[in-house]
Amino acid sequence: MSLSLSDRHGDDQRGVGFLSLRRSKGLIGLAVIGAILAAPTPALAEGSWSSSLSGTRSGFTSRTWIDNNNDGVITKTVLSGCSRSDGATFKLTVDLRRKRSLSPDVSYGVKTVSACKGGTGTGTWGDQTSGTYFLQFWHYDFGTVSASSVKTYY
């Protein structure tokens, strides 16, 4: 007894051509999924940290962090809820600095973030080279400054 092609596929009378079409559609589907997964994604910060300031004097330095420069994201600090211990008007500035051994630290610029008194103050410094960084906060030499939120992205 010999089997015909239609017998091998049970009740499916569509034959070998149908199977090739089905296989092609499956491969096209896989290619589309692969293209979606390989599409460029928006840049995400390599790292970040959050903190607050409480009664800090002018010249206070933040924690340090290491930027390995694994991305093209700018270094940015966002402060909010800033106040002075005596309620006086103040100018708050933030200096991004890179630590160097056996040499003075490098400043990448001072940004004014006084807007954090009534909302949010932001300092941006662009994409930085790899290294160890910290922030230094400056204001008038008398009194202390607090901020309910300090967030840094790098």
SSE order and pairing:
Elements: H1 5-8, H2 16-38, E1 48-56, E2 60-61, E3 65-67, E4 75-84, E5 93-98, E6 106-112, E7 120-126, E8 131-138, E9 145-153
How would you portray this structure in words?
By secondary structure, this protein is of the alpha+beta class. The protein is built from two helices and nine strands, in the order ααβββββββββ. The chain has helices at residues 5-8, 16-38; strands at 48-56, 60-61, 65-67, 75-84, 93-98, 106-112, 120-126, 131-138, 145-153. The strands form two sheets. Strands 2, 3, 5, 6 and 8 form a five-stranded antiparallel sheet that branches. It has a four-stranded antiparallel sheet with strand order 1-9-4-7, with no helix packed on it. The longest helix has 23 residues, at 16-38. The model is unreliable at 1-11 and 29-43 (pLDDT under 50).
